[in-house]
Every structure is written in C-alpha cells, then in structure tokens.
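Aim 2 progress update. The chain analyzed this quarter is reproduced below.
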Amino acid sequence: MLKSFVKIACRILYKNKLFTILNVVGMALGMYLSLLFIALLAFLFRFDNFHPHNERIYRVTTQVNDKKDNPRYASAPMALAQQLENSFTGIEKVARIHRSLNGEAIYREKKIELAGYFADPGFFEIFNFPLVQGSKTTALSRPNTIVLTETEAEKLFGSKDAMGEMIKMDGYGNFLVTGILKDLPDNSHMQFEAVASFATLLSNKGTAFLQDEKDWSSFSGSYVYMRISEDAKVPTIQHNLDEVAKRQYTNQEIKASFHLQQLNDIVPGPQLYDSLGLTWDKLLLFVTGLITLIVLVPACSNFINLSIAQSLERMKEVGVRKVLGGQVHHIFSQFIIESTIVVLVALLIAYVIFEVIPTDYIYQMVEIPPIDLSPSRVTFTGFIVFALLVGVVTGIIPALYFINIPPIDAMKGKEVKASGRSYFRNAVLITQFMFSIGFTMAVVIMLRQQHYSVNYDFGFESENVLDVELQNVNQQIFKHEYGNLLSVQSVSMSSHILGVGSAPEHKINISFQADSLEASSMAVDEAFIQNMKLELLAGSSFSDDKLKNAHLIVVNEEFAKKLSTKDPLAAIGKSFALTDGREVQVAGILKNFHYAGLKEAIKPFYFEYDPTKFSYANLKLETNDVAGSLKTMETLWKNIGGDGDFTAQLFSEEIKQAYSFYNLLIRLWGFLGLLAITVTCLGLLGMVSFSTRKRYKEISIRKIMGASTESLVLLLSKNFMIMMAIASIITVPAMYYLFSHLLADMQHYSIQVSFIDVSISLGIVLVLGLTTILSQTWKAANTNPIDNLKSE
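Predicted structure tokens:
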C-alpha cells in the first residue's frame, strides 16, 4: 500500500512539474534557516559537556537588590570562595577565577597580546582542560606560574619546548611556564589563552583585599566555581549561601543574595551582567527561532495554498477513489506522503545550500564568536525528524479539505466553496508581502543611516590623517623622524582617537559654582588642534611652552556655557582644579565638535596637555599613496626602536569602523529580506498561475466579446494588487513608527525616515511582485480563445 501511495505521489508531482518546482524551491529556502537553527541548537546544548561530572559543577551568581534595576551578575565576591571551602559540607573543590590577566607577554624578542584568567590550583581539577605538559595539581600552586595554550606557546616559543621558560608581563613581572594546555574546544563557555596562578594576584595586591568589606560589594571580574560531592544536597548548600549573604550585607547599602547555577545551564541560559566567556540568552534563542519561522511558515503556507488551489484537477481523482471504496485514511495518507516527498526533496536542496554557503559568512553576518555548525549524528537526526514533521503538518490541511468532499460532487469536478479558505489564502499572501516590505524598508533605512553617519560633518579633519599607535616609543624621536618624511605634512599626539568611541568622563568641582561639572577630556599636544582643523572661537591653543601648557585647558562651547551661562566667552581665564588636584586655567574655547561620535549629544569637553597619556600619533599626510607611505613608515618604525608591529590606520577608516554595526544589521536584514521576498514571489507565482488557469474559459469568452488584453490583465491582477496595497498600508506606518524610535535610541544624531525611504522600499517589492503577477496574467490574456473553448 505504501509503495502504491509513493508511486502515485511521484506521478502527480511529475505531472505538475512547475508547481512541484515552486513548492520544492520555496520549502528549501524556508528550511535552510531552520537547518541552521537546528545545527545551532545541537551545538549550544552540547556546551561544556566534555567536563566529567558536569552535572555536579556549579557557578555562584550574585543577585543585587538595589531597588532599581536589581541586576543579576555571573560574578561573585572572591572572599565567598574561602567560606565555601572552609565552612560548607558537600563541596569537593572550589576555584576562584579572575579575568584580569591581560597584557603584552614578552619572551626575548617576541611580544604577543595575551588574555586569560588568574585561577586557583583546583581549576584544572574541576574542569577537563587537558594539559599536554605539566601537572594539573601543581601547575598553578605557586605564585608567578602560568599555563599557556598550545597556540600561544607556539607564537612565543616557536618549536622550542616552553616548559620551564620565563615570560614577562607588564604589571606582574616574570612568569614561569608550568604547563601547556590543549587549545580550547569551541563548545566551552570559557575562552582564554593563558591561566596564571591566583597566588600571583594575591602577591601583587595582598591578601587584605579579600577580607575588605568593599570586596563584597565590588566583585566585577571575579568568579567562583565548585564541584559538589555525589551525596551533596543542593538545597542545603543554597541555604548556607543565603545565610552568608544575610551576614555580609546586613550593614551595607546594597543588598545581595547568592545563587547556584549548574554548568549545563550557563549556555544557553539567562543573560547575566559581567558574564564570563560566551553566553546565549534563551530569549535570544527564542527570537532566533522566531526569525526562522518568519521564512519557513510562509513557505509551508505556499505549499498548502498551491495544493488546495489544484482542487479542480484533483477533484475527480478523489471522487474515483471514494467510489471504488477508498477509505478516508487512504486519501489522507496519499496527501501526507505527497507533502513529505516534497519536503524531503527540499531538505536535500536546503542541505546543499547549508554546506555551500560557508559558515564564515554566517559569523560575519551576525558577528558572533565562531561556532561549530558541522552536522553530527544528532544534527542529522534532527534534520530528518524536522523534515518529516513539516511534511506531515503541511499535508494535513489539504488532506482535510479533500476528504470532506462528497463523492458525487467530486466526480462532477465541483469545487467546494469555502470563504474561509479564500480568506486564509489572502491572509497568507498579505502577511508575506508585509514581511517583504518590512525587511526591505529596514535595509534601505539602515543603508541611509550608515551613509549619513560616516559622511557626517564631525567638526574636525578626518581625511588623509593616519593614526599610529605609539606603543611606548619615544614621542620626541617619533615626532622628529616622521615629521621629516616627505609624505607627512604635520604630526600631533593624543591620548584617544577623536570621534571614535567615548572619551573619559570626570566630575570637576568648580569653586565658584554650587554644582560640580561633568566633562569628558582628552590629552593632546600643542599641534593637535591645528592638525585636526578644530575651530577656535576665542582665546588661544597650547603653545610650545610645555610647563605653561600643563596648567592650561582648551574647552568646547558646552563647557564654556557651564562656566559662564550669560556670556560663554567670559570663561576665558577662569581657573579651577581638575580631579587629580592640578590647578588649570581656560586658555581657549573651541566650536562644538563630536569628540565621542554621534551616539550621544555633545556635552562639556576639554583638551588637556599631558604627554604621559599620549597613546597615538596623528599624521597629516600630503599624499594619496598611503600604501607606499606605510612601507616607508614601517621601515622607519624599526629604526627608532619600535618593538611591536607598526600599527596604523586611516582616520576616515576608523570612523567607518565605528559605525560598522550598521553593516551587520544591513547584512542580516538583507539576507532575511531576500529569503522572504523569494518565498513570497514563488508563492505568488503559483497562486497567480492557478487562478488564471481556472479562468481560462472566462478569459476566452471575454476576448470574443471584445475585451482588450490590458483590461483582462487588470481583471486578473486586481485582487493581487489589492492585497499588495493592504500589506503596504499596514506595514509602512508600523515600520515608520518603529524606526523613528529605534534610530533615536541607537544614535542621537540620526536620520528621519523619509518619503524617499518608503518609496524605494515599496518600489522594490512592488516591482518584483507586479513582475511575478504580470508574467502569468499577460500570458493568460494573450491565449487563443479557440484553444480553451473547442471542447465546449
């Protein structure tokens, strides 16, 4: 029986080749995102599963009750670990982790950036991070010992054995390499390049800070993990944690409580502040799944619509089956098998797309850490089960429609009139058009917002300026040597990159004002203001007198207004003390400029002169041959004693990178929009084709009666155009409202959604939709009436 059903299904699908292709391609596109989502789920739910006894490993999280935001932190006070180890029963091992190990690691001539953790010796006993060399129990037992991953060890030492070698890190002195660690798997929520002994942190900061009461309220970057014994009772440990919190926070301003979080619940899990490593919020996972349904459900709806739309052609087949004794479940099975075959073929195509489109593209599109989406046995099982489920669900509705038709009506080829079915079909098409218009508008608006941001007048010079990281090189030598290059017009120094990110903010107490003043600042030299072509409204800039410069600041208009509300220019010459106690005087006032980008409104800001803070050199170039100039500069860098690599970037490129997150949104929404529009057009093509085919005789009679081709095209297209219009009327105001608020939240200086954005978006979708409609209606309107009426 099953073999017979499969044969009949294949014949019917082959007979209706066009609609089979439309269904298969539409389902394949819809299922592609679903396969990605299934692979992602398979990856996320095997996070941290390589640790033995992972069900007994817990992290202590902190719930702060501040009567406002009540944030929950992944971190916890370090002093808590001592109480867990000394006072609690049922705990086998406790490990403190502090993620402050960051800096430049130096071995002879080699220098690399190293990031990792300080951890207790129990770290390698709780977690299964295999050591290639060294002992798990002793690798972190002494101060100034460190364990490197294989990749980092190779960077520093090459083919040489790293065990027993000494490396230097600024701020911590020398480290003895006591272990080499296998590179971490992707499915670990902890990602680090090195682990140093926690005793190193204690020897540098002293043990007193562990007992300090402030340590219980300031615990950023510190984490407590434990492995409990097999017979331990989690509620008992949780009760003891509650008692500790009550004792420690009784007399403190903030109140907090501690909670146990199982290792398997970290990824995926709740979004916590101060998270360690990769996190994947369950809400984010839900939203991701919802996005896949946005494309999958319309594809399934297209299949249902096209299946029911074939009612006239399938009616006699169903009638003959019923007259010859076909049972309801036989007819039901036939339609389920047909839909399942279509879905399985679509699954094969979707899997080919899944393999062809590189996962690197997916990483770039959503900018997440690399994840392993390669299919496993579990993933393949999920793919097949998902396809069978989709096949059954999509086959049920057409099956229910046909099995309810009386045999006599079916033999006559009489279609059952059902207004609900028509409403459902129309609603599906309208919804598809809404998603298509919405995604298209999102992309168009983000493109214009990105262009607006990178081409905005920031109030300073950004073209032909090269920013170079000084990396502790002698500033005067750098300025002299690079200033003599033919390609360099002028050189200035600064502590930060202007207009990118944010500048440090300070609270300044002004003696002649009641309220303190909050202002951001940057340290620059005497050439910076002129080099960046900032406009000086009053007063003067810094001079060549370095001693005098140390007691001067140059402020923007907002700062001047705060100092002298009635006459901002009167701020010139006013004196006050900075946060470091230095007495300074306002030397000049600059026209407002965007020192911290466009995300926030311009606030009080000042330039100070402090060479100890200089981190960048700003080179004003006289040439467009940047590539040629860089080669000369790299050579000169080695000659003046530059230790690390010569690191430089054009200012204009840094501005673009600062707004690269718009590119992320454009790629993501553009990708989803392309899938949505494609699925919509495929479904529309099928529906238009079927609706025109059902009206061939009506069209022929109208032509004989003198109807023009244009009037027939309008007649056949009218309903679909109305649906497109309804979708536009619903979507455009909703998207306008959404983006008017979204853009303002994302960036203070942003575009206003305009008529042009709406017109371009609607134009793209309407052109594609109308092209799809007219491709079928024009063909139907030009058919020969004799071909359709000769059997009458």
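The longest strand covers residues 91-107. The mean pLDDT is 81. These observations will guide the mutagenesis experiments scheduled for the next reporting period.
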